[in-house]
Structures are given as structure tokens and as C-alpha cells.
Amino acid sequence: SAFLAPGGKEMYFTSWQTNDLIVVDDENTDIYTKIWRSNRSEDGWEKPTALGGNINRPGFHTSNITISPDGNRMYFARQQLEGNVLNESKIYMAEKSGNDWGAAKEVNGINGNFIVTHPSVGELYGKEVLFFSSNQDGGQGQFDLFYATYKGDGVYGEPVNLGPKLNTVGNEKTPFYRDGIL
User: Fold this and answer.
1) pLDDT at residue 95, as a whole number
2) If we measure between CA atoms, which residue out of 87, 48, 92 comes closest to residue 66?
3) How many CB atoms lie within 10 A of CB 17?
4) How far is CA 67 from the centre of its chain?
């Protein structure tokens, strides 16, 4: 889930950032993926650092980052697993505050009592939208691709299923939008 921020000077990605085998036990409690940032210098990419507690929270896997075209809003998924099964996932948004990101808030209008993941900021019909994958009702199969139109102030319109030309009875995941192409 790497994402190059507008301007090309920051890259964000999801990782455990370890070469060690991750063992889940009472002694190892830092077993969750985090979002990391690396800055580009004249010498190349710098050593990455994990984003702070505004984004990465204990007890949650944080992943699937995307950033608005103006570089001021970051979207990502906070997820919980039960064993190896994803049982909770919601999309969050944080706004840029200087060189850092402010407190993350659940995206209003998209999340519910279902799984929502893999956000990707795009454009549709001349308006900014957020594409995402969800298993909510009204789909063609298990996970479908949806979009919701950005209304401003962190609020989105009703999710719209992208329909049977893109969605199947199986799982559609990880939408990616760039330069007018989904």
C-alpha cells in the first residue's frame, strides 16, 4: 500500500518494519501494521518513520493510505482481525497540520456495521469522490467497489455501488485511481 504524496517528496506505506518473525504472545504486543513515511532528499529516500498516535493506534492495523490531490487530507483504514479474518474495518481521515497530520476521524457517510476498506481518492463527473471496497448490502457479491461524493468538511454522500460491469459475485478490492483511470 505505498502512496506517493502530491509533489513527490513524501512516500507513505504500510508495514511492520521488521525483519524478525512476528510472534503473537503476551510479551509481544506491538504486532500491528502501521503507516510509515519516508521523505525524499537529494541522496534518495530517507529512513522511514512511523506516523504518530494520531494515525497509528495500539490494537489496530492501520493501512491502505491515500491522500487528496491537494495533499491536505489523508485517508486510511483501521482494522481488527480475529485470527486471520478481517472482522472490523473503517475508513478514517486526518487533515494536514504543518508537517504532520492531525487527529483522525471516522469518515462520515461511509462507515457502518459492515467492512469498509481500501480508500482511493478520485474524481467522477467532475467531483471529488472516494472509491473503496465494502461488503455492505446492495452489492453484486462479497466485496464490491463503491464510491461516495465528497461534500466537504469530512462528510460524504451516500455510497454508490459501481455496478455489475466492475463488480462480480466474488471479491473486488484495492481500487486505485490516478489521472482519470480507476
Assistant:
1) 95
2) 92
3) 12
4) 9
Beta strand pairing status for 105-106 and 155-156?
A: unpaired
What average pLDDT does the segment 37-53 reach? 95
Q: What per-residue confidence (pLDDT) applies to 96?
A: 93
Comparing C-alpha atoms, which of 53, 128, 57, 118 is closest to residue 90?
Answer: 118
On whether the pTM is more than 0.70, the answer is yes
Do 67 and 74 touch, CB atoms closer than 8 A? yes
Query: 147 and 157 in contact (C-beta within 8 Å)?
Result: no
Alpha carbons 148 and 171: distance in angstroms, whole number: 19
> For 154-167, how does the pLDDT look when each residue is reduced to its tens digit (9 = 90+)?
889 999 999 999 99
Residues 48 and 70: beta-carbon distance below 8 Å:
no
Residues making up the chain, counted from first to last: 182
